[in-house]
Amino acid sequence: MSVVKRNVVIAGGGSAGWMAAAMLSRLLGAQFSITLIESSEIATVGVGEATIPPIRTFNQVLGINEADFLRATGGTIKLAIEFNGWGSPASNYLHAFGGIGREQGFASFYHYWHRARAEGLTDNREDDFWQYSLNAHAARAGRFTPLEQIPNTPLPGLQYAYHFDAGRYAQLLKRYCQTAGVHHMDATIDRVMLDADSGDINALQLTSGQQLAGDFFIDCTGARSLLLGKALGVGFTDYAEWLPCNRAIALPSERLNVVPPYTRATAHGAGWSWQIPLTHRTGNGIVYSAQNLSDDEALNTLQQQLTGPAVAEPNLIRFKVGRRVKQWHKNCVALGLASGFLEPLESTSLHLVQSAVTRLVKMFPAPTCYASQAEAFNRHAQTEFESVRDFIILHYHLNGRQEPMWRDCQRMAIPQALAQRIALFKASGQVHTAADELFTEPAWQQVMLGQGVRPESYHTLADGLSQQQLGDFMVHLKTIYARTVKQLPEHEAYLATLNTHL
Ligand SMILES: Cc1cc2nc3c(=O)[nH]c(=O)nc-3n(C[C@H](O)[C@H](O)[C@H](O)COP(=O)(O)OP(=O)(O)OC[C@H]3O[C@@H](n4cnc5c(N)ncnc54)[C@H](O)[C@@H]3O)c2cc1C
């Protein structure tokens, strides 16, 4: 007996649309007919170049070979983000991926380090904590090779993500989808047709007069949120009270001579700027609060930071930080900018698309029971989004700068969960994270230490070692990290072996 396939319609062909189409066709292509509609008359947002490590799993599930991917997207390796000028204008620290030191059961390495520092058993340098991170060592040294584990030790190797050209990535996924049987339409949606009884979406009315019917719709129409926001009337929760930036200018420049394996995020008087190294160009941009900086001043600041000639015109982007109150309503799920936006400080937007697509596959709706699935989906989505939001607010709130926007951020009332987290770390050096939280304990520790929090005490478990044992433990770890990083090839040399410069 042949079963009629239900129709899934994806509206929008930016990164979100193509990521969704690729993953759904890979995992559910046998059961569903998938159509992606995009309009060549409506541009994609066209930025989005730095990612976090789970993107590797996304590509692996799709069966995309890493070297092919890096070649196709001008990609490079990302081991960390370097934050300049956040704690104070002269400060500098890394948020390196992966763990720090060797975890010790119930108390994290941080507590052992805290005690060792208090007792003079480790260096007194400002960045000493990062001397116990292989990722931080490798990032600073500009070295990389895939390394699961440090040989002959129980210590994990390098955790990495990518920098890449998001436009090229969308094209790669588009080619992937074409061979996977995704139907593609270049057309403009004029209206969204709703069922008078159920309120579900029936079809998309196109400007050509044609109607595109579907059973389930995925809104990837960008910040317009044509389906979920406009047609289904799902409201937007604004986060501007905590995240003051609302504009960005992107301005790519010529490739750097030596491509570092990390992103740079440099704070300035009313926001921050990014530098993302690719093999064919450098992605640059400035994120700022329009209340505190004019567009001309922002462009001027950005231009002064360029490390080479610009290779395109500046692209001004206005945005609103926040999220749709529900990400799934009726027979529609929104992904990407259609579902909300957090500024790219921790490179999380593409990850949130990935995570929502994964959740959608796990909860893919049976024809008649949307409501309870939607409720569970929305609960997870909200928790995830708010935890990422709080991590970004942390950078703003703990700044040590004197300009008006930054002073306001120091004084602002922050979400309660975040306030409790900071207070707990200040008092005890502890960070409690949920099992499925995106940012791990070492990530929170790095940002809080990097931006000047100095915990008053450490966990008593760290007193379980004698002073001699603790001292030996610290020296041993430091020696292993320093020795390992010396044996890694240069990041550039690694990329050259993949022919990514072609
Ligand atoms: C300044 C900035 C920097 C960023 N940096 C990063 C980063 O470093 N890392 C990261 O992970 N993310 C980053 N992002 C986020 C990332 O760019 C987006 O999340 C991602 O590109 C997803 O965009 P999208 O597909 O949702 O929307 P869009 O790219 O806006 O695509 C919308 C699509 O909808 C289609 N469409 C719209 N209206 C219609 C219509 N009426 N009919 C038919 N089609 C229509 C358009 O044609 C287009 O194909 C950044 C975002 C900004 C603003």
Sequence-ordered SSE layout with sheet pairings:
Layout: E1 6-11, H1 15-28, E2 32-38, H2 54-62, H3 66-73, E3 76-78, E4 80-84, E5 92-96, H4 109-118, H5 134-141, E6 161-163, H6 166-179, E7 183-186, E8 189-194, E9 201-206, E10 211-213, E11 216-219, H7 226-231, E12 236-238, E13 247-250, E14 262-268, E15 271-277, E16 282-288, H8 295-305, E17 315-318, E18 322-324, E19 328-329, E20 332-334, E21 340-341, H9 349-362, H10 370-397, H11 404-411, H12 416-428, H13 441-450, H14 467-486, H15 491-497
Parallel strand pairs: 1-2, 1-11, 2-7, 4-14, 11-20
Antiparallel strand pairs: 3-6, 4-5, 8-9, 9-10, 12-18, 13-16, 13-17, 14-15, 15-16, 18-21, 19-20
Helix pairs in contact: 1-6, 1-9, 5-14, 9-10
The structure holds flavin-adenine dinucleotide.
**DSSP strand count:** 21
**Can you tell me the CATH superfamily of the largest domain?**
FAD/NAD(P)-binding domain
**Poorly predicted spans:** none
Helix count from the secondary structure assignment: 15
Helix content bin: 25-40%
The distinct ligands, each listed once, are: flavin-adenine dinucleotide
Question: Domains counted in the coordinates: how many?
Answer: 3
- Structural class determined from secondary elements: alpha+beta
Average pLDDT confidence is 95
Strand content: 15-25%
Describe this structure in words.
This protein has helices at 15-28, 54-62, 66-73, 109-118, 134-141, 166-179, 226-231, 295-305, 349-362, 370-397, 404-411, 416-428, 441-450, 467-486, 491-497; strands at residues 6-11, 32-38, 76-78, 80-84, 92-96, 161-163, 183-186, 189-194, 201-206, 211-213, 216-219, 236-238, 247-250, 262-268, 271-277, 282-288, 315-318, 322-324, 328-329, 332-334, 340-341. It folds into three domains: 6-76 and 164-237 and 322-385, FAD/NAD(P)-binding domain, CATH 3.50.50.60; 80-159 and 415-491, no CATH class; 247-318, no CATH class. Helix content is 36%, strand content 19%. Helix 1 (15-28) links the parallel strand 1 and strand 2. The strands form five sheets. The protein has a seven-stranded mixed sheet. A six-stranded mixed sheet has the order 7-2-1-11-20-19. It is of the alpha+beta class. It contains 15 helices and 21 strands. The structure holds flavin-adenine dinucleotide. Flavin-adenine dinucleotide binds at residues 12-17, 37-39, 42, 44-45, 47-51, 166, 188-189, 220-222, 224, 226, 248, 285, 317, 319, 336-338, 344, 347, 349-350. Residues 12-17, 37-39, 42, 44-45, 47-51, 166, 188-189, 220-222, 224, 226, 248, 285, 317, 319, 336-338, 344, 347, 349-350 line the site of flavin-adenine dinucleotide.
